[in-house]
Amino acid sequence: MSNGSLIIDVKDRILSLKLNRPESLNSFDLEMLNGLIDALKAAGSNSQIKAIIISGAGRSFCAGGDVKTMGKATATEVYEHIGVLNNCIKAIRDCEKPVIASVHGFAAGAGFNLALACDLIIASDDSKFALSFSQVGLISDGGGSYFLPRIIGPHLAKQLFFTAEPVSGERMHQLGVVNLLVSSEELIEETKKFAAKIAAGPGRANGMMKKLINQSFTSTLDEMLELERITQPLMITSEDHQEGVAAFKEKRKPSFVGK
Length: 259
Description:
Number of strands: 9
Radius of gyration: 19 Å
Shape: globular
Strand order of the largest sheet: 1-2-3-4-6-9
Helix content: 40-55%
Order of helices and strands: EEHEHEEHEEHHEHEHHHH
Mean pLDDT: 94
Structural class: alpha/beta
Distance between the termini: 28 Å
């Protein structure tokens, strides 16, 4: 299925969302952003979907904002456009299903920040990451000022924002931004294998774990301990927990259903 700017496919409990504006390195337009928002929200309530992959068509993952349109929009139009971008970022974070960014070529500007909003990043060894905002006299949008300092610390994050220097996928892997670095030839296959492994896991527990980790950045230790205390009794009543215990006792792999 496609809306033009976004190709949507579901197979083996995995939702694949491919950014589809290769002529502009998959820079954002409203059709793409709204398509992502709708697909992510629908996936959240679809018990048949266990994991989500976001990738890009053509030569790169995503170049972020379309440079060709910059300088033409009014301040009001920019404000409204970023509001839609923000809703897309929040849809990724709020979705209970694990979201994997599969990055090749360039992830630049808000395209980099889109990847950062995902739960995991798998990148090809020829990938490049660039926070290119300062090159055109702008600040970061799409949550970069939130996500990146939490991963690599404020000093290094400021360096990347101020200089806009492209950073290799290998370096991002060393810094802990990228979870898995693979060859460009293996990117699609390895991303699918990684997603399949997650999809075979306990979907309900994974969703709750994602919520807890995200909430930990704005909570105290006492608050997180209490949240874990409240959540765990709910987990032990789940079908997945019962299946996991049975599988452990029977020395077999569990067959989770996400309930």
